[in-house]
Task: inverse folding
């Protein structure tokens, strides 16, 4: 070693000592049993109350992203199939659903809620196998929340005349709904429950990588004996969604997904008079002040970005740390991500599951690579990743600036960008300096600061000293490129009614 | 260096957040080999305790036998592997010599409560004298109580100074500082008292005397473990943790071990750094261990009650 090299070594920053989260007392595998869940070898389209073969004649495979095993094959709907579904929905609207007393509509929706609750375990396992999310999240999050949503909106069905004082509600007609792959059943519930409660009929298009729970929900809807055609489910890719959106006999489009596709939909329906709501991407700021309850803030950051592998539109993907506490926050964050258990999503102790698809994994890798190229510092969990399937370790970047791609673009994966600020004013400016505006988090022990900061943040949902809390009574939706319209709560009725005197 | 202002800044805990975290950790699924290993680890971490006014030489001697040999190895309840002894026995000062004699020739430590246990409301010279006496009698560990009245009325310096003095009086003995968290009530207080005790020289911090209405809980223990971690971050000194009171079942004990594993990591997963203060936990651990080995539950009559 030359003297010059020695000098350089001396200038290196000494990394702090780390805790050792090893295998001294390791948890044995605790996989959820799957033997009682029946996945059919093939799923058809659900149109007019029946499972029908697609006119397209095509089927596509749905795989388990944790193992890459084929789970089943699913019908692909073409334009003719979509047309049949919309006709069935129109027919059901004219013939049954719009003529039914609201209290009767409520009964059907309550019935769906109860059936879903009863089959909760089956749905949780299906959701985990089809999408890769940890069973504990499907079991404690997705499924109970979906059930709660149906219960909540069932309650509204016969009380709509009280929802908007001085106005009367009328249904819109047929709603076309396109949902994403990150919370497949929950997004179906968010879309179906208010639409049905308000008296509309529906054609729903689930995402191509996660159609299974929606199709099992179709079975429940069939068993609940809903009038044929009130709910129709057409599976397929982007083309199927486009056919649905463009169909002339649709009164309302509800879309949750990427901003790019959302913009395309808006263009395609311009001038058609179709009513629309969009719930798109996000790049949420989680702001942590020096007077925050630190360990709970760390938990909130972890929950904000690694929940559901970061496949969450409201994920807290930008962390703003006050400079005075930057070092301790980064140290704690680093130690904490080592304890996240990444692996078999069906294991009850798994915290982070599989990335939903090969395509999404590619996007995540590409953006992480850009972060490294642009000189940001990469920190990752040392966890072992399974050999098969799509995986990405919990990751965060420090030394990130507003102008880095990883601070601007939605990664939709378990990757956090850590930025710093000096004053509250600067925190607000930086947090709002994005094309998105879906959600944000504020961490401080000081109540007055919470109100001051949250009133200045341009985001649809702001959590204070917590993150990713959902409830059917609370509206959810975005500003700017994160979309418009609200889902959940009283506000969630509005996109599915016209108000008349 | 001790300043109250510094202490307050370090002591913010969000109640909802900490309780959520403790609840989520308590849902870890602990099965099969993990369960067996965890139970054995838990047995080795017990401070087998009797702290009653009616304690006698007979009671303490019997308990010491249980401490050495929790389960009769010749029993029909076949457990294929060795069952460890407990870590220590914990008794009143007058019982120290008896325990010492009963445990002679074993590795089991003798811990004595001191400093006007359980209230801590005696003059400092007497607390110091009591501490010196129990150490002279051979106690390896001293479990002191803090003066909660002083702490709650803001006299943090007084509490700090007392701990420093008692630590001095301990000499080579290990000092466990009981915070009596049930009386401190808020998590902010628990965190502040933990930090204060460690700064003053505690080798262990302990939740409770077992005499208050609320004893050890998971969230309180989590707050203390996180404070231990933060203290280690700042000073590099490891401090031990002892939840005490109300831990009666294997399930609870394993939940506590999960907190340690996922907050402090492997280094703290031994009886050098983690103890359970318990009088009735041992038999439930044994019963579950036998069940893991034989597949059957035995009646409690098969487990000795000393």
Result:
């Amino acid at each position: 070693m030359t003297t010059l090299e020695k000098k350089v070594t001396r200038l290196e920053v000494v990394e702090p000592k780390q805790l050792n989260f090893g295998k001294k007392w390791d948890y044995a595998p605790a996989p959820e049993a799957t033997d009682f869940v029946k996945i059919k070898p093939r799923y058809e389209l659900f149109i007019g109350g029946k499972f029908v073969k697609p006119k397209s004649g095509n089927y596509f495979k749905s795989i388990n992203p944790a193992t890459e095993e084929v789970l089943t094959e699913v019908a692909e709907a073409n334009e003719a199939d979509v047309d049949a579904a919309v006709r069935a929905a129109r027919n059901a609207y004219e013939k049954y659903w719009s003529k039914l007393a609201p209290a009767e509509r409520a009964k059907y929706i309550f019935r769906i809620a109860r059936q879903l609750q009863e089959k909760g375990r089956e749905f949780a396992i299906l959701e985990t196998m089809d999408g890769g999310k940890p069973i504990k999240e499907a079991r404690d999050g997705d499924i109970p929340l979906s059930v709660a949503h149906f219960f909540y909106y069932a309650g509204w069905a016969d009380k709509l005349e009280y929802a908007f004082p001085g106005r009367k509600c009328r249904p819109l007609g047929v709603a076309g709904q396109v949902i994403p792959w990150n919370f497949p059943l929950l997004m179906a519930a968010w879309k179906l429950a208010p639409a049905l409660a308000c008296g509309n009929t529906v054609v729903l298009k689930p995402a191509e990588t996660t159609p299974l729970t929606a199709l099992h929900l179709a079975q429940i809807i069939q068993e609940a004996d809903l009038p044929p055609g009130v709910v129709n489910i057409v599976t397929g890719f982007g083309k199927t969604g486009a056919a649905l959106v463009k169909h002339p006999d649709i009164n309302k489009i509800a879309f949750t997904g990427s901003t790019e596709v959302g913009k395309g939909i808006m263009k395609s329906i311009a001038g058609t008079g179709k009513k629309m709501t969009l719930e798109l991407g996000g790049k949420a700021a989680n702001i942590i002040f020096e007077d925050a309850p630190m360990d709970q803030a760390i938990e909130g950051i972890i929950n904000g970005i690694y929940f559901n592998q970061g496949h969450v539109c409201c994920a807290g993907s930008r962390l703003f740390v006050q400079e005075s506490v930057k070092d301790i926050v980064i140290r704690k964050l680093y130690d904490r991500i080592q304890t996240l258990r990444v692996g078999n999503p069906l294991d009850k102790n798994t915290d982070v599951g599989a990335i939903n698809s090969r395509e999404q994994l590619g996007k995540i890798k590409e953006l992480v690579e850009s972060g490294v190229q642009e000189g940001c510092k990469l920190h990752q969990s040392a966890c072992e990743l399974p050999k098969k399937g799509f995986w990405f370790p919990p990751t965060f970047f420090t030394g990130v600036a507003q102008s880095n791609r990883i601070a601007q673009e939605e990664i939709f994966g378990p990757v956090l960008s850590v930025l710093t600020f000096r004053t509250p004013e600067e925190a607000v400016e930086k947090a709002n300096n994005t094309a998105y505006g879906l959600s944000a988090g504020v961490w401080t022990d000081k109540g007055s600061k919470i109100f001051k900061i949250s009133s200045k943040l341009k985001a649809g949902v702001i959590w204070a000293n917590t993150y990713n809390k959902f409830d059917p009574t609370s509206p959810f939706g975005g500003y700017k490129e994160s979309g418009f319209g609200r889902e959940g709560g009283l506000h969630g009725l509005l996109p599915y009614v016209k108000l008349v005197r | 260096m001790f300043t109250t202002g510094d202490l307050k800044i370090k002591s913010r805990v969000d109640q909802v957040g900490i309780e959520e975290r403790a609840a989520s950790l308590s849902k870890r699924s602990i099965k099969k080999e993990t369960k067996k290993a965890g139970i054995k680890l838990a047995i080795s971490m017990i401070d087998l305790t009797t702290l009653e006014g009616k304690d006698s030489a007979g009671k303490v001697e019997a308990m010491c036998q249980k401490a050495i040999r929790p389960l009769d190895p010749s029993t029909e309840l076949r457990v294929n592997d060795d069952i460890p002894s407990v870590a220590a026995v914990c008794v009143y000062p007058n019982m120290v010599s008896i325990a010492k004699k009963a445990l002679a020739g074993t590795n089991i430590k003798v811990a004595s409560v001191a400093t006007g246990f359980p209230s801590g409301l005696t003059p400092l010279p007497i607390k110091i004298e009591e501490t010196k006496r129990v150490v002279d009698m051979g106690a390896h560990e001293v479990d002191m109580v803090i003066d909660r009245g002083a702490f709650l009325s803001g006299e943090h310096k007084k509490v700090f100074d007392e701990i420093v003095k008692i630590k001095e009086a301990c000499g080579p003995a290990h000092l466990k500082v009981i915070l009596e968290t049930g009386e401190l009530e808020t998590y902010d207080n628990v965190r502040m008292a933990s930090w204060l005790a460690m700064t003053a020289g505690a080798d262990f911090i302990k939740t409770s005397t077992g005499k208050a209405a609320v004893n050890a809980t998971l969230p309180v223990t989590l707050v203390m473990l996180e404070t231990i971690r933060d203290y280690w971050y700042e000073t590099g000194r490891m401090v031990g943790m002892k939840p005490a009171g109300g831990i009666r079942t294997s399930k609870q004990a394993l939940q506590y071990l999960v907190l340690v594993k996922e907050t402090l990591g492997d280094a703290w997963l031994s009886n050098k750094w983690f103890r359970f203060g318990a009088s009735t936990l041992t038999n439930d651990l044994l019963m579950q261990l036998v069940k893991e080995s034989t597949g059957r539950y035995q009646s409690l009559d098969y487990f000795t009650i000393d």
Remarks:
- The longest strand of chain B covers residues 109-114.
- The interface with chain A takes residues 9, 12-14, 16-18, 20-21, 27-35, 37-38, 41, 226, 229, 233, 236, 257, 261-262, 264-267, 269 of chain B (CB under 8 Å).
- Chain B is about 45% helix and 10% strand.
